[in-house]
Batch of 4 targets.
Target 1
Amino acid sequence: MDMESIVDELLRKDTLGSDIIAWDYLSGGTSSVVAKIQCKNGQSYVVKRNSPNLIYWESVFLQFYEDSTLLPRLVYAAKEYVVYAFLRGDTLSARPEKRKMLQDLTLGLINDYKPILQGWQEQFSWKKFLQQEVMEAEAIIGSYLSDEDVALIMQVVRSQPREHLYLLHGDCGVHNFLFQEGALCGVIDPLHLFGPPMYDFIFAFCSSPDSLDEETLQYGLSFFDKSFAGELYGSVLIGLYIRLARCLLHHPEDLKRYLEAWEYWKLLYYKQKNSTTPNSSVK
């Protein structure tokens, strides 16, 4: 179903309760097509078309956390598209300090996370998910990290404990955050992922190369109210490793800062473990 047909269907069914006076395409994700609709009553909406499975889980996420102050209000869900209220803000606008962003994200969304419903888990394994993510990242990172670094991250993943699973955003980074007047005002484009809330928190922390320090992380965590079975510094290493691969694919200009952050957190990890840091080099 193309966007023109979707708009015609919304008009025919009077889904929005007002005539549509204008619409135009917005920049979408990798697979989605997105448009902004303006109605005669002054309201604006976003229409997003994607594969039925992704649309289903996006609508589930928005309904599951309908009281979140950072998520758009779901208006209508069909098989191939969703309609939600337009949120003002922009992913490219000036961002607040990362510590403030993490505070607002935690209080406005992550602390609202709820355990998954019975029947959702199926055969999902959190540890297997992490192993797959790290293996895919390794293929991209290649020689930028040493063999010792690869062995370390594999060991950290293997040591991850069993976690209580929650419905997560799954792509909770600055590329999906809306900002206005230097403040976080919205979170968009959730994916289908079950896991611990800490994953989304660390994903957000690692999603930009600025302020990747322990003080910033601990400040954000001071507002975090969910249980966490894992080991913090090891979880940050996992988040950084995955982010390094995405950096190489999408923002290679940030690589130097992420490699510095990797060495910084690796030292913290070994310090916490009271271990001797093996000789390793960043190529």
Target 2
Amino acid sequence: MIRIPPLRRLVRSLAMACAAALSVPASAQGDLLVAPTRVMINSGGNAEVVLSNIGEKPATYRISLELRRMEESGDFDEVAEADANSTERAALDMVRFAPRRVTLLPGQPQAVRISVRPPEGLPDGEYRVHMSFRAIPTPGAPDAAAPPEAAPASGVTIKLTPIYGITIPVFVRKGRLEAQASITSARQVRFENQAFLEVDMGRTGQRSVYGELIGKSPRGEVLFSLRGIAVYPEVNRRKVHVPLNAEQAARVKGPIKLEYRELPENGGALITEANLTVS
């Protein structure tokens, strides 16, 4: 059993409590814990994201805003500011945050304040940026995860230092926006000896959809569930890959029912459903 020092337990509890209060989970990468993992601001206003250092050493993080576009595969493409469209440019212009760099002692939480001031005449719609939290390596600090370096024959040494980070979406919604989702087909596929259920999903309307995908047998037994499934406004359809273990792969065949619901902490309302036959 891994024992967590009392101070670290307190910080974990604080971050998780913040996440629960905001109806979204926390996300961890390396020694950084971030809550919430999604920020939604209607029209204008303020929000906070809590960062917590759950490691044993001080750590410094750089905070910035990025633009990303969803692809139909569900992956994201990074977008340079010079290539931003009008919606993306408006999102960057109206979202402000502070601080932009933080140093956290072990067990120390820090709030990042987010402020949104939509300009006059902003069209109704959903605007989104991605807030990035990236670790800044400590100069001269040894990389404990790196293997001992062998003596180079050429006299040149190259050291690769991994940089850990987390990125979360920040949404600004203006106006009364509607969206509908659909599930059109599903099939089993394999990638590198791992079974997946590949699901084709669609979206229409002026905003994104977000929720949990649940698979059920004809008798209503839950076969799997996968949280955090989003379809963003820049795509009308996307593929979702649900990892399946051996038992699930054997059962997720033939007729099944797929439900796409809001997360339980957001009410669990049904967004869409489909009865499909999986081959």
Target 3
Amino acid sequence: MYDNVRFLEIMEQIFESMAVVVVTDTDGRIVYVNRSYSEILEVAPDEAVGKPVAEIIPRTRMNIVARTGQEEIGSPFVMKNGDTIIVNRHPIRKDGQVIGAVAFSVMSKRNEVNTLSTLEQINRLTFEISQYKQELGRLRGAKYSLDQIIGETPGMQRLREMIRKVAQSKSSVLITGETGTGKELIAHAIHQESPRKHNPFVKLNCAALPSELIESELFGYEEGAFTGAKKGGKPGKFELAHAGSLLLDEIDQLPLYLQSKLLRAIQEKEIERVGGTKPIDVDF
């Protein structure tokens, strides 16, 4: 008996240390409300117990959680005094059956209840992150998007639909066509439509580099790999495109000796720098 009493005392102290705690049964009637929240509600805890939660707490969703059994995490809620808090609502289950619901604030102190400024900061930071992502995409990402592919013929509509579909795949894509038909434009559009659009879009014209430099440009090199190698080495295009997209333009112009190394990079997502001994995982 002592253990049960002690346990209940500890639980009550935990609940009372929080800003907001309220428990209801499946009928939506209050079973428990802590003193801190009862002061905000302007009702004594004993008076609140047994009453419909909607009568004591306007706009509450406790009865919905108890009825549906679906938890609600991190929900903003405007209290009776006008303060906005962030609450979690959970169904209470016993033997697999919902027997009630509990809601509590993520704040732990009474003077932290008013979190309107916190919500404003979250909204501001979310906006700033969005702006930074857009700027980063402009600096490091693709220049063109699906909007630059103009035309309403059935063929162009099929092309745009194929781009949207391919962009959601993790597979490598081979784009073929005559010179000037817009292969690079399509590559940019695929990147912009993919989940990788905020990550780097790196391109390399394989026909524009001397054969002796193409390997170090693609795979990078370690310090001392050859005469003139930079101190500390240099990452290649595969590493620079990590978590983003890599466009290898004129890939058919690659030297034959690089094809096996390129195949391993594409299939295994693993490369090895020139002069290196350790494999490097890449995601492009």
Target 4
Amino acid sequence: MYYQTMISAQELKTIIDHDNVRVFDCRFSLKDPQGGINSFRAGHIPNAQHADMDTQLSAAMTATSGRHPLPEAEVFLQQIKDWGINNDTQVIAYDDMSGAFAARLWWMMRWFGHDKVAVLDGGLEKWTDQGYALTDQDISLPAGQFNGQANMEWCVDIDTVARELAAQTITLIDARSADRYSAKDQTTDPVPGHIPGASNLPFAGNLNADGTMAPPQVIRARFEQTIKDQPFNNVINMCGSGVTACHNLLAQAVAGLPPMKLFVGSWSQWIRDKSRPVATGE
């Protein structure tokens, strides 16, 4: 049995010592670039490796990219192997933000055709709530022999988004908070607001009050209300930099919806060009 979307703390506990399981700590702080690795070093789930958002799950930002561009395919393929992942490996990702960052690794593994990947439901908090131990010990693993290929049709570039929005042929879903989308939050983004025509479905709406993923039928109804009769292949997910949009993509998979697309550059790329239109309000 493989886990492909979510895994509970109890389920993870039963498989964590299996040879074909790889666990990744994806904790991250936008305001503190060292926050993730420092938290990992202070204590993490046993057998976990740290997956760094800025250096392993992203390429370096360029003058025209968003904040977290995807690595080149061959670079990430080598990273997968360096982590000790094979094609039969069960990959588990977790963070301390109910999957907001772990979902990026989940999506990237799926991007490479690896569906044996899941996010820890409720994150690190649910692990410790069960009384399960943390460790500060690193592990050393042999390189993996993973063989996969990135599906470039799963992501769209900024020119495609602009063109298809103008033609009214796509549904663009923004996973940022309502305050960031509406521009009530004047501090988080260098330019507050949203792309004209985008709909706002914050990733937090995918969650129960305790930070676990909401039931599939609840999530499905939430997205279908916005998607309506739009073909799923024409639905594009975005956020600030292509990270929390992956939580919406994860939630869509939990709900049994077909794979939709990711605008990796997202808002942080859109606003690099001052000539692009910006909308405010709800």
